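FW: tagging you since you asked about this chain on Friday. Here's the raw sequence from the shared folder, copied in full. Didn't touch anything.
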Amino acid sequence: MPTQLPQSGPTDPTSVRPLLLDDFIPFRLSFTSNLVSDTIARSYEALFGLSIPEWRLIAVVAETGGITQAEIGHRTRMDKVTVSRAAIALVERGLLERSANAADRRSHLLMLSDAGRTLYAAIAPKAQDLEARIFAQFDPAEVAAFTAMLRRIDAVTAALDHPPGRRR
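HL: got it, structure written out here
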């Protein structure tokens, strides 16, 4: 059972339980995320020659039809440099195309090329199959509850990062 998080405020240092990393939920989330990402990365690299950031860009661009690098960074939580490098590599491989962004001339829209759409059509079913294999041991209600909890964690964490009244 994970340790209870202490309430904010003064605490008695002698009554605080030691932090056990393996029971620390933020660590567990990170560890599991890295484990799943590493498994996916090996598969996508072997089958399609794509890194995880490259796959994420292809997936986000496929979902949106056209998106800026800044929007990709926001949606995926990848930093600007990672997004930029992945975009450059995918444009050079002919999987993405850049076009002028009428809404903001300082940026470009990224769109899948014909080759990018073909690649996405090949990858998406494999991604869904891998997801199904990872969660095959769980009841669909558990998976739905887990997904809902992850979204709630996202919302709570975002609110902690940007409390009301604080300028960004």
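FW: The mean pLDDT is 88.
HL: agreed, and The radius of gyration is 20 Å.
FW: great, closing this out.
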